[in-house]
Structure formats: structure tokens, C-alpha cells
Amino acid sequence: EAVTRVAAVDLGATSGRVMSGRITRDRVEINELHRFRNGAVRARGSLLWDVLGIYRETLTGIGKVAGTGPLHGIGIDSWAIDYGLVDRDGELLGSTYSHRDARTDGVAEKVVAEIGAAELYATTGIQQLPFNTLYQLVAARGSAALEAADTLLLLPDLLGFWLTGAAGAERTNASTTQLYDVRTGEWAVDLCRRLGIPWSILPPLRDPGSVVGPLLPDVARDLGVGAEVPVVAVGSHDTASAVVGVPAETDRFAYISSGTWSLVGLELDRPVLTEEARLADFTNELGVDGTTRFLKNVMGLWVLSESLRSWSERRYQDVELRSLVAAAAEFEPLRTVVDISDPRLLAPSTAADPMPERVAGLAAEAGEPVPVSPVAIARCIVDSLAVAYRRYVRTAAELAGRTLDVVHVVGGGSQNEVLCQLTADACELPVVAGPVEAAALGNVLVQGRALGADLPDLAAMRAMVRRSSTIRRYEPTAGLDWAAAESRVF
Ligand code: ADP
Ligand code: LRH
């Protein structure tokens, strides 16, 4: 039997992992061979990614995959939006900023005043997030690095460039930048010109499933593999790969890709660029095989993980994720709900401005009972996430004219049983939770097809995922007034 064996690098904002992926005639298997912590570093007042460290861990992981069997391909996906700049010699320039850095404060407002919100949305179809690549570049105008830049490379493309020497921009990730014209499928050059962004640094677009290139000879030598091993452009936006890995059986599904962020939405054939979609501030990102990911970015489990970090730094020794969530399940439901996507929750927790106190502050401001204990805060976070999921699953379905049978939850957050049940209750739909590593599976499957596996379409890939993963179903239960909770927030 023909077996395709690949390395899937999946980089999340809080952890990176490298899997060996195996595709046989009817199954896909992944095996995690390397995992490392990730997080931004504050230096000179800015929040930066340790890109060389990420590259080192990526190489270590690929080396482990190569060391345990044949290697037919390598694919990389990561969080969206962030980029590095290289000069004409291919040297990395300046710093690689995290989208959580404050340099974009107030920039979106200025751009909207200049271009107009309606035109911006008609061109890019993208949700107004303060950190969109467009706004990062406007914030960087006039900087020495941008002036010297030859090429902008989104993170997976930067790592791909180091592996192969080939520069390009994979389309699913390019579509998240707000520099991509969703109508033409090209870079939004005119928008860049009007904003004084050097559009010539935007590299040629490439489709998911295309080959980036063979490994550079020295890279192949260091890894101990043949230089013919290709790097394959997968859906290099982690959310695009995660949506490929959703085990849906029909098109009547919503998904929540639940990790550091929660991405809540639908898979559609084409973008929804109506005035209603703009006012609801939904995003139209590109998916694999020309699909549209019509979704909302929700602040996600970041709020919980940063609260945990804050408590552990203050030595609440008893606070651990699983026991905290279990205790929160027993706490009074829907006591406090807040807008979990409030931009004040975006920046990392610090001693001077801890995450739990920010959540409590939002509650006080909204006239909600103020949560104080870690359990009360955790309950407020999961309830608020479920209320947001209800809101956006329903809004997405309305805006797209879809009827839904099920909500699929994938990613690390699909292991949060309490949140999965609340999501089913709030959305009044069954939740199918898992796979945890949907993004890695999507990465492996798109590589597999590029390398010749018989996977004609997304339905075939999803059938493989269904056969090969552990998934759990949660039926909605009645009893809580989710509509009332929703109206307290929105
Ligand atoms: P990312 O790719 O954005 O780094 P992940 O998909 O790895 O994120 O998801 C990380 C999140 O998953 C964590 O913030 C945590 O809340 C949640 N999570 C991970 N493992 C568990 C678990 N065993 N139980 C509940 N939640 C979990
Ligand atoms: C999730 C994600 C999300 C983006 C954000 C920056 O990891 O890619 O889809 O909006 O990170």
C-alpha cells in the first residue's frame, strides 16, 4: 500500500508542534513528535516574536520526523497577520512584531477616516481588528526596516523561505492581512498606494497545495534528508488548515476553531460583502479550494490562559486549568457576562495590569456583578465565550442565509468539556468536539493531495478525518436564558 509520510508544522501563539503525518488509502494519522512553548517577548517596550527560536524548533521537529521514517513533504501553518521583512540580500530586517503590540493603537481609526469603512470592506472583506497587517504596515511607515525592505513574508512563508530560498505569499494567509483584494484575488495595490505602503514588497501569491520548492542543499544536509524533499504550501493560515480538518458531513455546519483565539463561522462558496456583513464586522478569509471562511474573531481562551498565568505569578498555587474549569462548572451560571472581545483584553497580562482585574473591570463597567475569585472569573469567561458563540453562529447563519444542524469545535479548546456543553446550550445546537489537532490534520491532508494521494475535495479529506479521529458529541440542554444573557452583552 502506498503511504505518504509528511512533517506538519503547526505554530500557535502559545505553542508550536511538529507532527509526523501518515496518509494511507483511507486513513490519516498524526503523531506529535515535537512540541515547544511559544510567546511574545517584550524588548525595548515592544512585543516581538522570537522567530529564530521558532525556526530552530521547527528544524528540530522536522529532524525528528525525518529521523523516524521516510519524509515526502513538509508543510507549515501558523497564526495569521504577522510577518518579517527581508532586504534584497534576503537578510531579516528589524523586528518581527506580535499583533498584540501597541504600535497599532489608533491606526485603524486613521485609515478608516482616510479610506472610508465601506470601501475598505468592499475591497478586503476583513473584520476591523486593530492589528491587521495593513495597520501594522501603516504604523511602520517611515521606519528604517520598512524603507530597506525588499520583501514582506508572513510567518509560515518566512520559515518556508529559510528552508527553500523561495519567496511567496500563500493565499489563505495573505487573505487575512487586509492587503488582499477579495474581489480580484490579487494584492490590493491601489489601497497600499493610497496609504503610502510600499506595495512592491508584497511577494507573488501562491495557492495552497502548490510546491514552495525543494530544500536548500545545506538545510537538507543538516536535516539528513534528500534535497528533493519539497516544502508544500498548505493552508498556511492555521485556521484555514483547521477548517479543512473539521469532520463535517454536510454543509449545514458552523465551526469554532478554538485555541488562543476562537474563530467562529461558516465555510461558504463565496464572500459575503453586504452592508449587513460589514456592520456585523464579519471577516471573509480565503479557505482551501477557493472556499470562503466567513467568520468572526473572538478573543478566545487567551483570556483564561492569561488569567491563569497572572494567578500563578501571584502564587495562587491551587489554580490549574482543568480543576479550575471543573469548579467553574459548579458555580452560578450566567451570573456575570461581558464582551469577551473587548480590545482591552488583547494585551498580555502584566503585574501592573493583570488580566483577571481587567475582566472584573469590564463587568463593573457593564453593571454586572463583579467576579472576584478565580472560579468566578473563570465562570465569567466561559459563560461570556458561550454567549459570544451564540451571537456569532446565529449572525453568520443569518447573514449567509444558511440553516445549521451542528457546531463543530476543533483545536485545544475542544477539550474544555464545560465550554463545549455551554456552547451546545447557548447555540441550541449539538456540538461535535474534536479533533484537537484539526490544523495539523488539515496541513497533512493538503500536503498528501499535493503529493498524489487520492483526495479529490474537502469532503474526501473530511471523511478521512472522521474515520481517524476521536470526536465527542454534546446535545443542547435547556434551562438557562441565553437570549437574555446575549442581550446583556450585545
Ligand atoms: P494555539 O494553537 O492558538 O496555541 P491550541 O489549539 O493549542 O491553541 O489551544 C490552546 C488552548 O486549549 C488553551 O488555552 C487551553 O485553554 C485549551 N486546552 C488545552 N488543553 C486542554 C484541556 N486538557 N482541557 C481544557 N482545555 C484545554
Ligand atoms: C488563530 C489566528 C486567527 C488570527 C489570529 C492572529 O491562531 O490565526 O485566525 O486572526 O491567529
TrEMBL record:
CDD domains: ASKHA_NBD_FGGY_RhaB-like (cd07771). It comes from Nocardioides antri. The lineage of its organism: Bacteria, Bacillati, Actinomycetota, Actinomycetes, Propionibacteriales. It holds the Pfam family FGGY_C. Belongs to the FGGY kinase family. Residues 254-450 form the Carbohydrate kinase FGGY C-terminal domain. One of its GO terms (molecular function) is ATP binding. One of its GO terms (biological process) is rhamnose catabolic process. Residues 71-245 form the Carbohydrate kinase FGGY N-terminal domain. Keywords: ATP-binding, Carbohydrate metabolism, Kinase, Nucleotide-binding, Rhamnose metabolism, Transferase, Xylose metabolism. It comes from the Bacteria. The keyword Phosphoprotein does not apply. PANTHER family: SUGAR KINASE, XYLULOSE KINASE. This is Rhamnulokinase. InterPro entries: ATPase_NBD, FGGY_C, FGGY_Carb_Kinase, FGGY_N, Rhamnulokinase.
